[in-house]
What we know:
This protein has helices spanning 13-21, 29-39, 54-68, 86-99, 117-124, 134-142, 159-164, 168-176, 193-200, 233-241, 256-268, 282-293, 327-334, 355-365, 380-396, and strands at 44-47, 79-82, 107-110, 129-132, 153-156, 183-188, 207-210, 221-227, 249-252, 274-276, 299-302, 317-320, 344-350, 370-371. By secondary structure, it is of the alpha/beta class.
Amino acid sequence: MNTxxxxxxxxxxxxxxxxxxxxxxTPTPVQLGSIPRVLEGRDLLATAxxxxxxxxxxxLPMLHLLNAREGRSNKHVRALILTPTRxxxxxxxxxxxxxxxxxxxxxxxLLGGVAQAPQAKALREIxxxxxxxxxxxxxxxxxxxxxxxxxxxLVLDEADRMLDxxxxxxxxxxxxxxxxxxQTLFFSATLSPxxxxxxxxxxxxxxxxxxxxxxxxxxxxTQKVLFVEQADKLSLLTEILREDSVRRALVFARTKHGAxxxxxxxxxxxxxxxxxxxxxxxxxxxxxxxAFDRGRTNVLVATDIVARGIDVDGITHVINFDxxxxxxxxxxxxxxxxxxxxxxxxLSFCGEDEVSLLFAIxxxxxxxxxxxxxxxxxxxxxxxxxDRKRAAQQGTGSSSRFVSGRxxxxxxxxxxxxxxxxxxxxxxxxxxxxxx
Length: 436
């Protein structure tokens, strides 16, 4: 008798064999909710963020359906997965190859930033499933190198990110080139009115699956905030990255130029780091990501392009050098650590002009971040500004659900620069030795 819980979902034995190879034992909630509905042929509207197993939630039933249907033809593309970023497209392509390793199905990944010729060659072989970013797909479709008029399954992954990145018009063009009889699977981390409107034009009587709301943060992530003047952020980052407990760190910057600047400054201080953002070529991005994944580089500095686009094991620390403008991005950023049951630490640097961004994050997640007041570059002035704003909010009765009952007292440390203090190690989760 097969005791693998995935067996109860009705998946092909060859897919189950591939899951056993990967030591997949228990379906996640989004997989339990999605896979049976997709196998029934239903359209799907799923709200699930990265890290919940959603890639398998659409890849596994898609592989099963395409392989099982009689009259399978190798003369047209049968399924399309649209995704907003190149990194995510490559990740999904790798997942398809892993899950479908024992099936006679072919896959292709289409993305910009690299030469077109290898992708055109892959399309001439008529893959069953194509994973693509919108821009490159439209380019190849315009050249008549790919046809979508006989598509059986369409997946829109990270639909909210598509909207944020301005891909909605491209997505609508692509959808209009597909048959109305297709099965559509729509995945989004949020379900804003704009996303709901986009979905309503694409899915028909969908099954609805909603798991892990975007505001949720894993209990395995320790979240801390460090108040620091903007001019001291790099020095603070350097001290933290030198702690033994920081084995693999993902650092988020607000801008592409900011990420490059952080890397240059870290390397001048003897800390090897790589940057990844949209100005980098695809080959450079993949090289940096591979070096980080394989441990050749322990520090990756990135913009939000990878907040939902990478899945690297063993990230011990996520460091928000700059707080994100959108509080939802904070949840996605720190979700890169504490994956697959591991534990992790999320550190957020808060400058004078970022206090309001911190409040928005705490309001979304419904809990305050723990202060690290004893670090070497603590700013009493910024901490006091936060306390005054909290007190003012409580005076008006706002945001009382996520702030403490009274404003915290200022820490006696001043905001002047100091030599490294042992308490800074507490920010990284390292054990602090007793003073001699």
